[in-house]
Amino acid sequence: MNADPRRLARVLGHGFEREELLERALTHRSAGPLNNERLEFLGDALIGFLMAEVLLERFPQADEGALSRMRASLVNRESLAELARGMQLGDYLRLGAGELRTGGQGRDSILADALEAVLGAVFLDAGFAATRTLVLRLFAPRLEQTIAIQAAKDPKTRLQEWLQSRKRPLPEYLVLDIGGDQHAQTFTVSCLLPDADVRTQGEGSSRRRAEQAAAQAMLERIEDV
Amino acid sequence: MNADPRRLARVLGHGFEREELLERALTHRSAGPLNNERLEFLGDALIGFLMAEVLLERFPQADEGALSRMRASLVNRESLAELARGMQLGDYLRLGAGELRTGGQGRDSILADALEAVLGAVFLDAGFAATRTLVLRLFAPRLEQTIAIQAAKDPKTRLQEWLQSRKRPLPEYLVLDIGGDQHAQTFTVSCLLPDADVRTQGEGSSRRRAEQAAAQAMLERIEDV
Q: With an 8 Å Cβ cutoff, are A41 and B34 in contact?
C-alpha cells in the first residue's frame, strides 16, 4: 500500500490545489497510460533552467563551460535520486506489478524521474515563483557544497582553469622585488596574461603567497557580469 | 557601425531597465572577454523550459517522446537564426575583426546564440512573466505551424504513431456491420488494441471513414492529462 501523497506534500512544503497532479506525478509508466512521463518532461526542463539561473548569479566569474559542468554535477540521475530518497519518495510511487516485484521504487532512474515529475506538477499547480522557491530550497545543500568546492580552489588554480577553458595560454608569474628584513621578507610578484598584455601585481610574505595575490587581482580584473 | 540596440529593444517590445544587459547579449566572444556566453547559457535553458510548458499545454495527448521531438523541431540553431534574422539581429552584434571580415553577423550559430542571450537578458531585466510573454509571442507562428502539422494528421496516423512511440503493437480494425441502403451504406468498424484488450467503435459512410472514427474514439479514450 502506498503512503498518503498529502504527507509528501507536507514534506515538500506545498499543498496541492489540484491533488490529481501530484498523483499523476507519482505514477510510473509501468502502472498505466496515465503516468508521470509528461510531467517529468516539464520538470526536467524547469530544473535545468532554475539551476542555470542560480549558478549564473552565484558564480559571476564562471564561464559557460564551468556553469554547464557545475549544473551537470548538481543535477543528474544520482543527485535527483538522492534528493528523492531524502523525502522517502519511493514510498508514494505507483508502480506496475513487475516493477514492484523487482524493487523499482528504489531504483535511481525511477526516483529521479518521479522527482522531476513532482516538481513539474508543483509548477502547473502553483506557478513559477512558488516552484522556484521550493527547488532552490531543495537544492540548497548541494549548491552550498558546490560553492564550497569552488571557493576552496586557490586563485592560481581558478585563474588557470579560467584560461584553459578559453584555450588561452597560461599566466606568467615574475618576482619583481624582494624587500624587508631577512626574517620578514615581502615578495612582489607580477602576473601576466601573455596573449592580452594584461598585468597585475601581488604582495606576500612568500613567493607563493605573492603569486596567489597577483592571480586574485587578475581574477578581479577579468571578472564577468 | 552597429545599429542602436534601443531600436532592437523596440522590435522586441521590451525596454531594458539595465541596458548593459542587452549590450552584453549582443557581444560575441570574438569581441572580448565580456561577451554573451553566460547569457546564452541562461537563455538556452529558459527557451527549453518555456517550450516544454507550452507544448505540454497545447498537446494534451502527446507523450514525452512526441513533445521532445516537437520541441527539437521548434527550437534549434536554424529556427533561432531565422527568428534572429526576422529582427535584423545581425545588425546589432558586436563581433571581433576576424568574425566581421568573414561575415559572422550572418552565421546561424552566432545569430542563434545571440538570440538566446538576448532572451536571457530579458529574463534578468524583467523576470519570468514578461519573458514568457515575449518568448511565446516570438515563437507563436512556428508553434501554430507545428499544431497545424499535427492536426493535419488523420486519427489513424496519430494513433499509430502514439502506439509505435510506446513500442506497442498496431491496432486492429474490424468491420462489424454494413447497414443502410446500397447507395447510403453505413459502416461500423471496431478498433482494438491487442495488447490491452481495449475496444472502440466508429461509424461512417465508408470503411475508411468508419476506421478513422474508431481511431478518433480510441485517441480520446487514451487521452493524457
A: no
